Each structure stands twice: as structure tokens, then as C-alpha cells.
Amino acid sequence: MKLHHMTAAALWLLAAGSLGVAILIAPAFAADPLGTWFTADKDSQVRITNCGGALCGNLIWLKEPNDPATGQPKKDKNNADASKQGRPLLGAPIVLGMKPSGTPDQWSGNVYNASDGKTYSGSFTLTGPSTAELKGCVMSIICKSQTWTRAN
């Protein structure tokens, strides 16, 4: 009878130990990139949404929404596409169809920079529960990054 108790205890310890190891080696659950993010200088916010399995983001808030010269809402005046230069800057797409890159918590795609009106290849990487790095690159050689913080 004693042998059965020892065997049962050993099996229980082995099962509990195996479960503990499985928990330690199981991949972490990916953080959620969806939501509203302050850009690096906190003068604007971008809302990241799911668009067909990819990440898309639109400019939803500007600290200074009006053009000081005209008093009117800022326009996407630097856009390389002349047909888009008259559109309001609020609502403009900033993060364009970023798909999972294969690296945990990272998406790759395109980034629109309204300051110069150009679209760059880039990535969005969660660096913490409320921080992310947005990177834009020219020819995958010259890159600039900025840290965004979660607004909500």
C-alpha cells in the first residue's frame, strides 16, 4: 500500500512539474496593438484598427488642428498625390496595412508621414503594454523611429 502512495505521489509531482515547465516554455500571448496612440511628441493621436487582418491607423486628434495661417482645419497639403492635398489631415491614413512580420508583437507595412507627404516602408512594434515603436525606412537603409504611447 505504501508503494502505491509513493508511486501516486511521484506521478503527481511529475505531472505538476511537467505542467510548470510547459507554462515556462509556452509562448507569451501577444499584446494588443489596437487602440489610440499618442505620437512621439504627443501633439497627435493615431487610432490603430484591424483592417482585414492587418493594422491600419488614422490620425484622429491634433493638438493644433487648425492651420495658423488660415484658421481653417489643417489639410494634407504635403501629400505627394496632388489629388489628396485638399483633404483634411484629421482622418488621414498614417499606418497602412501592416501585417504580422513573423516576429512577436511586430507588424510590417507602410507608414505615411504627413509632414513630408511621403510613404515609407516601416514597422510597428509593441515594446511594452503601453509603448510601441513606429519605424519608417527609405530603401530599408535609412530609418527613423519614434516611440508612441497608448492613449487609452
Short structural description:
By secondary structure, the chain is an alpha+beta fold. The protein has one helix at residues 2-25, and strands at residues 35-38, 44-51, 54-62, 93-100, 106-113, 118-128, 131-138, 142-150. It starts with a helix and ends with a strand.
Walk me through the topology:
Elements: H1 2-25, E1 35-38, E2 44-51, E3 54-62, E4 93-100, E5 106-113, E6 118-128, E7 131-138, E8 142-150
Antiparallel strand pairs: 1-2, 1-8, 2-3, 3-4, 4-5, 5-6, 6-7, 7-8
User: What is the CATH class?
Assistant: Mainly Beta
The helix count comes to: 1
Count of domains: 1
Provide the residue-averaged pLDDT.
84
Terminal CA distance = 60 Å
Number-wise, the strands total 8
* CATH architecture annotation name: Beta Barrel
Low-confidence stretches: 1-29
Q: Tell me the CATH topology.
A: Lipocalin
**What is the radius of gyration computed over CA atoms, rounded to a whole number of angstroms?**
23 Å
Assign a percent range to the helix content: 10-25%
Structural class: alpha+beta
Largest sheet: 8 strands, antiparallel, barrel
Strand order of the largest sheet: 1-2-3-4-5-6-7-8
| Quaternary structure state of the chains depicted | single chain
Order of helices and strands: HEEEEEEEE
